[in-house]
Structures are given as structure tokens and as C-alpha cells.
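Need fresh eyes. Consider my entry:
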Amino acid sequence: QTTSSALKGAIQLGITHTVGSLSTKPERDVLMQDFYVVESIFFPSEGSNLTPAHHYNDFRFKTYAPVAFRYFRELFGIRPDDYLYSLCNEPLIELSNSGASGSLFYVSSDDEFIIKTVQHKEAEFLQKLLPGYYMNLNQNPRTLLPKFYGLYCVQAGGKNIRIVVMNNLLPRSVRMHLKYDLKGSTYKRRASQKEREKVFPTYKDLDFMQDIPDGLFLDSDMYNALCKTLQRDCLVLQSFKIMDYSLLVAIHNMDLAQREHAMADGTCQADTRRPAAQKALYSTAMESIQGEARRGGTIETDDQMGGIPARNAKGERLLLYIGIIDVLQSYRFVKKLEHSWKALVHDGDTVSVHRPSF
């Protein structure tokens, strides 16, 4: 069990080194072999001619496909110094709500990036996915799919801890009043009692149908843009035979937030921090769905903090933060079994793990 602070420290040392050494290499086109390169560097605690001394145990840091990921970061307008500054200048913040997967999540102090620990299988799957992912991002950088900015591994004390750096969907400075993990299935899709007891629970499909029976209302252009993006993204996931992903929908209720502020009225310092503008392009929900036609900036996004404007049945103003998550689960053996078995016991149409082409 590597302590969290040692892990955070090792991640920051490793990323600083790998991004720094990459910047000395000239820019060039990404080639097929770039997807399969793994760079490895040893960090002894006393330091070496390549690495600084540090207070942790010795560790090894591996960077997967450094040149390919440099290209992905460039595609999203993330400059190497910004990437380093965001991730390595201040301590990473550990998020308490680890996912169902038991992954650890860290967020950079400027809210720009999420770091998630992934299992060996998921890291391996992302590596295999990279050439197709590359092709897809080239054609369509506006996507609700996760944006992967780096894949690394910290090896210490006989343990491998693999981490992926992604865009952060939920700015901490915006209070999310509700959050749903949706699969479009109703079988066993209710949040557990344990989940409901959390400060900030993630509800599921049945909860959504119960809490928001009339649905959410979007401007028709916005609705069409959202549907078009989702259809396009699902087609990509299907082509990779990916299953079991979810649509994460977090809802900030602007009217409720105003009432909360009014009630707090001076008794406690209401949090009026505005999220800093995101450095990465296309990283907010709003930018992800706006097609080429919207480049003219017809939509006023200033006071929307990156969220997609919507209303509920009461007419309250909402901001939606949306993204597709958990795409590194590949639809192979375990899931195939899960589907056939559940389909035997239950109507196949409501089961949550579907064949990719369903």
C-alpha cells in the first residue's frame, strides 16, 4: 500500500521528468510505432544524474506512448508548460468518492485534470485503443468521450499503479445538486443504500425516472447538438466493441443556488468562486457538443461556466455537465456472460450490458 502522498509525489516527479524530456525532442508526425513505445525511468531516493533526490522510496516511472499523447494534448490546446503547471505545481487533491471500481481519483488544484488509477486490463485496453482513438479525435475533437491526456505507471515496492490523466467533467467550484450515472437500462439500476448516504451520491436510471419524471428541457438546437454528439460517440464505442459505459449527468440548479446563497446570507461565506476558464479546448460539456456551425459564438456561454443550459419541469434554470465515462471496460468474457445469464433470468432488453451494436 503506497501511501497516497507518496503516490502523488511520485506522479508529479514522473510527469515533470517525462514532459521535460519530451520537450527536447523535435515535433514530428505521429507514427504507428509511437503508440507502442513505453519509456521507463528509475527514481532512486538519493537522486541520479537524470532525476532529483526525493523523500519517497525508490520508484520507477513509465510513460506510455509519450509522442502520441503529446499530440493528443496539442490537439486540445494544452501547452506542455500548462500541463506541467496544472499537475505538478501544487499538491494534487484526492477525491473521496472513489468510483464503484475502487479507483483512486485526484484532481489538479486548478480543476483542469482528473487523475484516475486504472487496472492493468484497462491500461492495456487503452494502449490498444490509441491508434483508433487518434484517428477519431482527428476527425472529431468535439466529443463527450473522455479525453485522455496521458497514461503512466508508478512501480514501487513490487506494486504497479497505473494512472490515466483525463479532462475533469465536474468543476469543484460549481455545486452539483444532482448527479446521475445513466445506462439506458432499468435492471438493477437504482443507487444502493450505501451510495445514498454519501454527501454527494451518484444516482442511477431508476432514480432519474423517479426524481425527474418529466425529463430535462433543452433549447432545440442544443438538444440536436447533444443527440448528434452522443450518436457519433456511441458509434465509435461500438466500433471498438466497448460496453458498459455510462452517461454521467450532473445538474447545477441556478435558481436553487441563488436561494441557497440568500439563505446563507452572510451567516457563512457563500462560495462565489467562479471556475477558472478551462485551458483545454473542447473540454467543457458546452464546447463538446457545439458543432462547427456554432463556431460563430451564437450562444452566450459566459455565465454558464461550461455547463449546458436547460430547465426542469418547474422552469428552474439548470446547467448540465455531461460526459461519457467508464469506456475502458471492454465487452469481452465477463460481460458476455453477464448479458447471457441476465437475459436468461430477465428480459434481455432491460439488461444493462448490451451487445455493442444494440
The first helix runs from residue 4 to 23.
